[in-house]
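Re: Re: ligand-bound prediction request (bumping)

Still looking for help on this. To restate: I need the protein modeled with adenosine monophosphate bound, output as structure tokens. Inputs repeated here so nobody has to scroll up.
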Amino acid sequence: MPVSLYNTMSRSVEKFEPIDDKEVGLYTCGPTVYNYAHIGNLRTYLFEDLLKRALVFSGYSVKHVMNITDVGHLTGDGDEGEDKLEKMAQKTKRSVWDIAEYYSKAFFSDFNQLGMIAPDITCKATDHIPHMIALIERLEERGHTYVSGGNVYFSIDSIDDYGKLAKLDLESLRTAVREDVTQDTNKKNSKDFVLWFTKSKFGEQSMMWDSPWGRGFPGWHIECSAMSMHYLGEQFDIHCGGIDAIPVHHTNEIAQSEAATGKKPWVKYWLHGEFLLDETGKMSKSKGEFLTLELLKKKGYAPMDYRFFCLGGHYRSQLKFSFATLDTAVTARKNVCDRVIALKREGSRAIELKGRKALDYKEAFTEHIQNDLNTPRCLADLWGVLKDDELSSDEKYSLVLIFDQVFGLGLATLQVPEEKIIDDPEALALLKKRTEAKQAKDWALADRLRSELDALGYLVKDTASGPSLEKKM
Ligand code: AMP
Ligand code: ZN
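Reply:
Sorry for the wait, this slipped through. Here it is.
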């Protein structure tokens, strides 16, 4: 079944046809490690993980590269403001290297707890300065750069299709830039962007490297072009990020990559995840206190609750976060887990699916995930399976395991709580009698049987997936 994905470049859902059918090249813009990731950032990484899982589920092998931005990302995407890491280092009186290491660790801790599959290659900007310099030299040789005020700029007037991804006219591009714009007078065109800073208008940087243009540091956009092409080749299949990357970061990446190689298109499919909004609108780190995975954990939520919450919205729709909606996801996930545990407790096994109904469920799920990652429909398929009494337990369990290759909820490794594996025949017989008594609405008998079980040392628990026994401590 073919995979279809929404390509931001064409603004339409397209049939996915990779450049080379042996391996899909996937580049996802990684974190800027100057602070904790907020749960909005994490939504974007979860969408990218879902995309990767869907491709693997569909039979592709994927080479996934993700960068770590540890230098060059200024507070404004259009070269305004200070370097985010330098700013945090000064504020906390730590070195930029410490900041990068500390927040990278925190990021990967979130990443792992959310069940995301590690990229095949994770690359730090600071480890790839020579690759960036080489790319800037290529641009210089082809006449796409100029030096002004000590910095090297990319001239957007040197190409004829600048801004094709954003499809915005220059006026709207201007308004997309954040409000604190302080116009860089070195620029010939306000949309030109820095490839290499030697004269930083923000004082001495602590991270600096020698270059043909003097000692300095790279602009933000050049790192993603240099590292993606280094690991995936000069043309590759998919590039992802959040929608805020469209007007400046990805626009500039395309401009410089295609100008350097002369090859178009640089990337075949551009996929962007919509934003997570908080109750005040856009989620942002500059708002002071912001929502992190650790904060959710402190409030008693499991990382997988957040993963489940995100699956409930399509990646191209805005998702509004509130604790009330997260609570709904918690209840739903618990219900799923209880049912899967009940299947395990019954000794269900993964089997080869042969029954028509089970195969129909698998087909519907496959169609939904391959149709631009329609996770809300996929979750509905999961519910359908769990509630369908015409399926055998083995069929249900097998479908759950198949679906979870994409969901990544860890359903295969759910543990049946030890107390639930009770093989005391006397207790099990009493429990069975009690269930029958309840079904016959003989509450007095059911209560008596509960007391008998109590006397034998067992607690009876009524859960969504049926009654179970727990050995009293
Ligand atoms: P950063 O670490 O700030 O570079 O951001 C990491 C990723 O999170 C980028 O791909 C952004 O596009 C994305 N992002 C930023 N804010 C949000 C949000 N509120 N919801 C979803 N994604 C976001
Ligand atoms: Zn990037």
